[in-house]
Amino acid sequence: MPGLTAEQVGNARAVVAAGAATGLSLRDQAIGVMTAMGESSLRVLDRGDAAGPDSRGLFQQRDNGAWGTYAERMDPTASATSFFRALARVGGRDAMAPTLVAHAVQRNADPQHYAKYWDQAVAVVARLTGATRAQVAAS
Description:
Blueprint: H1 6-21, H2 26-40, H3 70-74, H4 76-88, H5 98-106, H6 118-129, H7 133-138
C-alpha cells in the first residue's frame, strides 16, 4: 500500500482482523486503523509520551489495568481487541464523527486529533477487505 511499510500493513491487517473477529462493522474497523495511525503511525511502540509515559503499543494504551498486560498491549491483535471491546460500548457511535468515536475510547486531549487519518484508514480497510471506500465509510 502506498505510503505504508510492510510492518504498518501487517499491523493494519491485525487491527482489521480483530475488528472483524469482534463482529464490528467495516466503519468500526476503519476507526480502529485511524486510531492506531494517530497514536503510533501503525507501529508497536515500546514508549509513551509526556501525557502517557506508561503508554505502549499500537494504541498507546496505558498501564492502568484497563488495557491488559504489557505483553497484551504490545501485541497488535490483543491491543486491537481491547480497543474494539471499548469501542463497542460507545453508544450512538454510528451517528458520530469517526474522530469523536476514537476520542470516546482513547480520551485524547484533542477530540479532532484522529480526523486527518480517516481517509487513509478507509482506503487501507477497503484494500485489505476488498470493500469499496463507500462501503467502509458507511457501514
